[in-house]
Every structure is written in C-alpha cells, then in structure tokens.
Specification:
EC 1.1.1.22; N-(1-d-carboxylethyl)-l-norvaline Dehydrogenase, domain 2; NAD binding; alpha/beta; Rossmann fold; single chain; six-stranded parallel beta sheet; about 45% helix; 3 domains; elongated
C-alpha cells in the first residue's frame, strides 16, 4: 500500500519503520525544519532497534521523509495521523485538505491520543456532504507503545485496539496489520469512541494499580510487614495478577501523564467528580519524594553539605527520557537542603545536564562507581539491569556511609545487610524512626 504518516512522535516513527518493513511505500510527513534531520540521520531516539529499522527502510527506498506540503500532493491509500495530544488543530487542518482530494477511497488512521470523540469529528470533516456509502473513513488505532521497546511492541503486539465502523475500512486495515497479527488474531474491534476511551482507561487502571501498591507499601513500613510477601500473595490471585504491582518511588513518562490528564479532564468535563484518579496522581507525586523523606529521617534532618549518589535518572529503563521522571522531584527536594548529588544513568545523563546546565550541586558520572565516592547514601531511582548485581564490596569501600535507599526494591534486604550495608526499600517492613544514626 501507499501510506502517508503525519507527525514526529514516537508513534509516527515506529509506524513509518514498521509499515515500510512489511513492503509498503511509506511517506513520513514532518514539518519543513525536521525533514533534513530525519533524511540524513534518522529519528533522534535511543531505541537502537527503531533507529536501525528506520534507516534501513530509508536505504531501501520504501521510506521517504518529506515536508507535509509536498507529501499531500502525492497519492496514497492510507493516511495516518500520529500527532501529539496538543495538536488537534493540525489534525483538523490536514483532514480538511484530505477531504478535498479527488480520490474516492481513503483510509485515515488516527493514532493520536486526543479527546474521546475526536475521530468521529474528524470523520465529519472528511465526509461532510458525502453519502453514507462513501469510502473515506476515519478509524481509531490507539497508540499502545511502551517506550524502550516501541518497535517490538508494535510488530509483536499483545493486543490491538481498533475503532472502526465501516466494513470496507475494516478489511483494508486488517490487510495492513496482517503481518503483525498473523500468529494469533489480536484485533479487538469496537467503535472509534470506545477505542479512544479504552486507551485512556488502560492507562488509568495501570496508574491506579501502581499508586495502590505504593499506598500498601507505605502502610507495610509502619506495620513492619514486607510488601514483597504481600505483593506475591496478591499477584498469585488470578483475579489480580502481577503486572504493574511493584512498589517504588513513583512513575513518570510523558505519554502516561498525557493520557491520565486526558482521562481526568474527560471525567471532570462530564461531571463524574473523579476523586479516584486525582488521588492516584496525588499519591504518585508524593511517592516521588519517598527516598528524600527516608534520607531526611535517617540523618535526623541534617542534610546540609552531604553527598548522595543516585543510580538512575530516566523515568524507566530503556529510555533516555526525563519526562515526569521521579528524579526531578527528588533533586528539587535534595537541593533545597544543600545536598550535593552525583548521578549515574546509562542513557539519560545528556538530558539531565541539558536540563540543569552547570548546576553547582549536580555531578554526572559515566561510571556508576565514580558516583559513589565519599557518598553518604546511594539512592536507587531507576531499575536498570546494570544495577541489579553490582560489586557490593567495591561499593562499601567507596561510600562514606554504607546506606542504600532502594526506590525499586531490586535488592534482597538481608543479603545487602549481611554485606555491611544499612538498607531501606519501599515497604520492606523497617521504619527509620528511633534508629541510631550510623557513624
């Protein structure tokens, strides 16, 4: 098929690479100033699989990058809108142009996370005066990508949510998605409005699970209960399962936050008084400072001029993104107390330095052990695999005080204590109150 994709989001880049890989001719349409960068270097992403696939398809000639104005003059069977959530105006404007095209059949796929009902409104723009039998259709194919493994997730989906209300359009998109849907039919077909709300509802449920387990973890500390045992017991119940049931120091991510905001706005707009989701978000923001609170208690509020090491800055492993990342709230709290912070992250150091250029209380280190020198504590914020089995004896020698505050519960408390460390996780059953300061 001839496919045009408009947008410079992760979703647009993944769709362009994936559809070109399966033999389609793909036009990736972007603003004029972005075209040269994409043509020469491919997408700016740390997802190596995506970057490699994108560049390979460019070399093959199946994927071309060009400005929107030029691409709209060419022929295509499918037009994909893969825009950011605040680009509804651009979607409306482009759809008006598509409506004026002389071709009789056109499938418009909305992958953007817009408000519920946007695909239906785009359909009205696309076919304002045509008969019901017109073969110009807007369908909703919500972006369910997970940053860090976006291309793999698209090409080997666990499920595909599709909002489609025209029989001919369903046949065309089934053919388009067939290479990614052959092993087992993962398509869940519904109306466009249903699909749009389903995407937001999934995010809301995942966020609720995360905040709920964090609430339980905070209670577990007070009750001297290990949340890991509680988590295993809960997850073993087939009605609950283990996914997104890991306590920690808060969740982040631009897409996650964007979807939650869209869902809460929809609930508020229609008078649903969404106290639940507002509480979920409030719990998460508080959780981002839990490691600071533990450090504050341990050192009995005396943090001025102390040095701490932080392992992990990205909001999740596999990405260099700091969008809504827990480290941002943590750094603000630490710096307010005059704490010197030394950070290691496998991918996100450039982003951190760009965000805080020449900050007097920030050092970034390419070696995780360098960050530990003379540290009064290690705070684990992102659960990169390279942190799971470190050289503990070397860590013990480098640190001034062997205090580990594990914001992702990746270490066995008894094991690290046996090695001479003082350890606090999230909900591991130990409170810092009334403990004697380590000397």
């Amino acid at each position: 098929m001839q496919i045009a994709i408009y947008g410079n989001t992760l979703s647009a880049q993944v769709s362009a690479a994936a559809f070109a890989t399966t033999g389609n001719q793909v036009l990736h349409l972007v603003p004029e100033n972005l075209g040269i960068q994409l043509q020469k270097h491919g997408p700016e992403t740390k997802e190596l699989a995506l970057k490699q696939a994108y560049q390979e398809q460019q070399a093959s000639g199946r994927l071309q990058v060009m400005p929107l104005s030029a691409g709209l003059k060419l022929g295509f069977d499918v037009f994909i809108l893969a825009l950011a959530s605040d680009q509804v105006a651009q979607a409306n404007a482009v759809t008006k142009v598509l409506a004026s095209l002389p071709q009789k059949q056109l499938l418009v796929i909305n992958q953007s996370t817009f408000a519920v009902g946007t695909s239906a409104r785009l359909q009205q723009i696309l076919t304002p005066y045509t008969e019901e039998a017109s073969q110009k259709a807007v369908v909703s194919l919500p972006d369910l990508l997970q940053e860090g493994a976006a291309l793999t997730g698209f090409m080997r989906p666990a499920r595909i949510i599709l909002g489609c209300e025209q029989a001919w359009a369903l046949k065309q998109i089934q053919a388009l998605l067939y290479p990614f849907n052959r092993r087992q039919d993962q398509l869940q077909i519904m109306s466009t409005r249903d699909a749009e709300l389903t995407k937001l509802a999934i995010t809301g449920m995942l966020a609720t699970r995360l905040s709920y387990i964090n609430e339980l973890a905070n209670l577990a500390d007070q009750l001297q209960v290990d949340i890991e045992n509680v988590r295993q017991g809960m997850g073993g119940d087939s009605r609950i399962g283990f996914e997104y049931l890991y306590p920690g120091c808060g969740f982040g991510g631009l897409n996650f936050a964007r979807d939650l905001d869209a869902l809460t706005q929809a609930l508020d707009t229609y008078g649903q008084n969404t106290t639940l989701l507002h509480q979920v978000l409030s719990i998460n923001e508080s959780q981002k400072e839990i490691l600071f609170r533990k450090l504050w208690q341990y050192y009995q509020t005396q943090l001025q001029d102390r040095k701490v090491a932080i392992w992990g800055a990205a909001f999740k492993p596999g990405t260099d993104s700091l969008d809504k990342a827990p480290i941002l709230a943590l750094l603000a709290a630490l710096w307010a107390q005059g704490v010197k912070v030394r950070v290691h992250d496998p991918k996100a150091l450039d982003a951190l330095q760009n965000l805080y250029p020449d900050h007097p209380l920030l050092e970034c280190h390419s070696d995780p052990y360098q960050a530990l020198q003379e540290a009064d504590a290690l705070l684990v914020v992102t659960e990169w695999k390279c942190y799971w089995t470190p050289d503990f004896p070397q860590m013990r020698e480098l640190m001034r005080h062997p205090l580990i505050l594990d914001g992702r519960n990746i270490y066995d408390p008894e094991y690290v204590k046996h090695l001479g460390f003082i350890y606090f996780g999230v909900g591991r059953g130990e409170t810092i109150k009334n403990r004697v300061l380590y000397e």
